Amino acid sequence: MAFDKHLFQNIITEFTIDSDRLHQIAGDFRYDLRKGLEDVNQSSLRMLKSYVGLPTGDEQGEYLALDFGGTNVRVLRIKLLGHGKFEVVKKVAQPLRKPGEYDYVGEGSTAEEMFGFIAGLVDEAIEGDHTTKYLLGHTFSFPSEQTDLYNAKLIIWTKEFATKGVEGQVVNDLLKKALQAKGITNVEPTAVINDTVAVLLAAAYKQPNVYIGSIYATGHNTCYLESFEGQAQEPMILNLESGGFSKIIPNRFDLEFDKQSEKPGEQRLEKMASGRYMGELFGMAMAELLGEKGRKYDFTSIDMSNIILDESTARKDVAAIIKEHTGKELTGDDLTDVQKLASTIVVRSARVVTATYVGIIWQMAGGKPVQEQHIAIDGSVYEKMPLAKENIMRALYELLGDDAPKVDTVLENGGSGLGAAIAAAMSQK
Ligand code: GLC
């Protein structure tokens, strides 16, 4: 079959963000940020306080780091050596769901079971030693309302988590109780941070001029250091929950997907940009091109990555991936069109994400010259998705113009663990 060229072109246009719209999104994000600082109810950003600023880089000592942000939970014993250096002494990792064996994230699971399992991992990380005192930093990558560095209540589960008895609770109280039930009284949870905050802390521990931390992976979110200039308040990192930004005009695929999703109306930007959702949008557009409008084929962002990477003349990989997921055999131009569709969705994602970074940079500059800085990013889309990094750079140039050379992005790989240890160290001040 050959795609309807007119339809194909329309779909590409619908997923394309030109320079004007890019500027509009960055400006709207900045506006929402400013509004959010005045009155959070006026903004689509949650602006969650983290009760932590930037580290000095000289934090030292051995800490426990719990990284809990997806279905894989990790507990690390990390030695901070100061001068931005550290050493991982021990690492334990387990999924929260093993099909056929256990499931701590599904509908039927409870907080007690989940935190009991995590306490077991902590026990492994300290190798059963119930005497040495450890402070534990906890990277908990879900929207949480904090009143201090310890006290973080889960507002709402994201990323399809459904465990009962955690929403509305102080997560470290649940962890403490589970540790005590196992006789682990020497481990004291003292800090909870979002993964974006962990990325920022980890990057700032190693180098100066980092004020923005972001996750660009299955989920997407960003935090930044708010200086609270001219106010009594000390500088503090704010977790924006930027995946909830709702001022980007959605196309009809975005609208349709949101309608069918677990939580319609929530996480609108995340549904356009993060790895978890790009494959879904691609699957909807593919169905339409195959004459099956309204259907959604299951593709992942890894499929999209493999589609984009196929440089063979016959586009053999593209053909195989499409055949595997749809049962359809495509040839010739259709295969390059499939690649173009995947690329266009990835490029859109990188552009909207960058527009939010620039919105923050403009807000931080407050009308003064933009500061020299590195944006710290962690996550599989940023790290591995073809076209992502280069389109972030391109969009930075488009938006920042003469200021663009002052800003770049750095990969902060594994920052969630290191950041948690740094937060534990900072909790002693
Ligand atoms: C989701 C969560 C957010 C987290 C992000 C990346 O957007 O709500 O807290 O930072 O995923 O893991």
Largest β-sheet summary = 6 strands, mixed
Distance between the first and last residues' Cα: 67 Å
Average predicted confidence as pLDDT? 96
- In angstroms, what is the radius of gyration? 22 Å
Reading the helices and strands in chain order gives HHEEEEEEHEEEHEHEEEHHHHHHEHHEH
- Which percent band covers the strand fraction? 15-25%
- Low-confidence parts, pLDDT < 50 over ≥5 residues? none
At the first level of CATH, the class of the largest domain is Alpha Beta
Q: Which CATH architecture of the largest domain?
A: 3-Layer(aba) Sandwich
Shape: globular
Tally of strands: 15
Secondary structure blueprint with pairings:
Layout: H1 5-14, H2 19-38, E1 48-49, E2 60-68, E3 72-82, E4 85-95, E5 97-98, E6 102-103, H3 111-125, E7 134-140, E8 144-146, E9 152-154, H4 171-181, E10 187-193, H5 195-206, E11 210-216, E12 220-226, E13 236-239, H6 252-260, H7 268-273, H8 275-289, H9 301-309, H10 316-326, H11 332-365, E14 373-378, H12 380-384, H13 388-400, E15 407-411, H14 415-426
Parallel strand pairs: 2-7, 7-10, 11-14, 14-15
Antiparallel strand pairs: 1-13, 2-3, 3-4, 5-6, 8-9, 11-12, 12-13
Helix pairs in contact: 2-11, 3-4, 5-14, 8-9, 8-11, 9-11, 11-13
Bound molecules: alpha-D-glucopyranose.
